């Protein structure tokens, strides 16, 4: 998308580019890839760090039942958008939906402040391609726990959307827009939260809320959602049980399945990525799958890829 050729980007432009990328994440996307050295891109992560610091604002804005309810609702809806759509739909194409719903969940996923759907899917596909090998961007066994959880996001070479991995998604200009200007939806969400809180505070003062209070609780929800999502990259490769002898270190973990609405069955998922379902047994809690099933009954999504019988039989043989 950038009209500049790589040769026209001297090193002195690096810092302004980092700031420009706060707004336009595709700025300089055609420039040569940065070194894969594990170095933090400090200017770029300022907003990410500030989001964490802003959570301390809860000391001043206090709490109210409305603020807590909004934070919990935002957590659940956006976790579903991440697990069911960013992961199972955009990254793995395990079911089909309409273009309108694809966009709607692209927007909802984007509001989780985990970058755009193309960036997310491209990095996730890379993870499956190189799981727990040296090239795996976020392998806790190769690069350490902290790096696998959050460090990798701060590295310069992981910043650009790897478009060659998501050619199937590039044909949708509305998704490219979301991905390129991935700050727009989060800003709109926080502005909306401020407006809602200010209106509730004025119209129903007995609720004890305000614009700033809802913004801070929205940030708290976002930070918790972020770290819960990324436990799948970090914890789910070190903590839990292994049903399938995959070539990586993925684990099944019931606790992580609860906090991520079903993503904790990560060993199942690494063994067979093509199914919409990640809990392979009835007792493997997978609410993202249940919600997608319900959505399929009313025609919102369709062609949900099942777990092949051979995959389940293999498990039965192993137990016998
Ligand atoms: Zn996956
Ligand atoms: Zn994994």
Structure description:
The protein is 53% helix and 1% strand. By secondary structure, it is mainly α. The protein has one domain (54-319). Strands 1-2 form a two-stranded antiparallel sheet. The chain is globular, with a radius of gyration of 20 Å. The mean pLDDT is 90. It binds zinc ion (ZN) (2 copies). One zinc ion (ZN) binds next to helix 14.
Main attributes?
16 helices; globular; 320 residues; binds zinc ion; two-stranded antiparallel sheet; 1% strand; mainly alpha
Please write out the topology:
Blueprint: H1 14-20, H2 42-54, H3 58-61, H4 65-91, E1 96-97, H5 99-110, H6 117-129, H7 140-143, H8 145-149, H9 167-170, H10 173-180, H11 184-203, H12 211-229, H13 254-259, H14 266-271, H15 287-297, E2 301-302, H16 309-319
Antiparallel strand pairs: 1-2
Helix pairs in contact: 4-5, 4-6, 4-12, 5-10, 11-12
Bound molecules: zinc ion (ZN) (2 copies).
One zinc ion binds at residues 87, 91-92, 124, 128, 269, 273.
Q: Any idea what the shape is?
A: globular
Report the C-alpha radius of gyration, rounded. 20 Å
Share in β-strands: under 5%
Helix content: 40-55%
Produce a short descriptive summary.
By secondary structure, the chain is mainly α.
């Amino acid at each position: 998308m950038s009209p500049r050729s790589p040769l026209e980007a001297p090193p002195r432009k690096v810092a302004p580019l980092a700031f420009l990328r706060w707004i336009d994440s595709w700025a300089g996307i055609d420039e040569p890839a940065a070194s894969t050295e594990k170095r933090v891109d400090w200017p770029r992560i300022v907003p990410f760090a500030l989001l964490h610091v802003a959570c301390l604002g809860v000391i001043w804005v206090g709490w109210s039942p409305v603020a807590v309810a909004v934070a919990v609702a935002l957590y659940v809806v956006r976790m579903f958008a991440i697990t069911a759509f960013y992961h199972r739909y955009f990254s793995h194409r395990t079911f089909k939906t309409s273009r309108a719903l694809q966009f709607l969940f692209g927007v909802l996923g984007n509001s989780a402040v985990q970058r755009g759907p193309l960036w997310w899917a491209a990095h996730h596909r890379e993870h499956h391609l190189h799981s727990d090998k040296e090239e795996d961007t976020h392998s806790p066994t190769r690069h350490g726990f902290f790096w696998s959880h959050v460090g990798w996001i701060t590295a310069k070479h992981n910043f650009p959307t790897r478009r060659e991995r998501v050619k199937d998604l590039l044909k949708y200009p509305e998704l490219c827009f979301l991905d390129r200007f991935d700050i727009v939806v989060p800003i709109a969400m926080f502005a909306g939260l401020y407006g809602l809180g200010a209106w509730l505070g004025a119209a129903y003062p007995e609720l004890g809320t305000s614009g700033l209070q809802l913004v801070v609780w929205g940030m708290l929800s976002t930070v918790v959602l972020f770290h819960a999502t990324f436990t799948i990259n970090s914890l789910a490769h070190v903590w839990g049980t292994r049903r399938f002898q995959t070539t990586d270190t993925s684990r099944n973990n019931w606790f992580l399945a609860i906090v991520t609405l079903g993503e904790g069955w990560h060993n199942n998922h690494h063994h067979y990525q093509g199914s919409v379902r990640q809990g392979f047994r009835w007792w493997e809690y997978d609410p993202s799958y249940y919600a997608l099933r319900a959505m399929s009954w009313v025609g919102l999504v369709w062609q949900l890829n099942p777990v092949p019988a051979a995959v389940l039989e293999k498990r039965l043989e192993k137990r016998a």
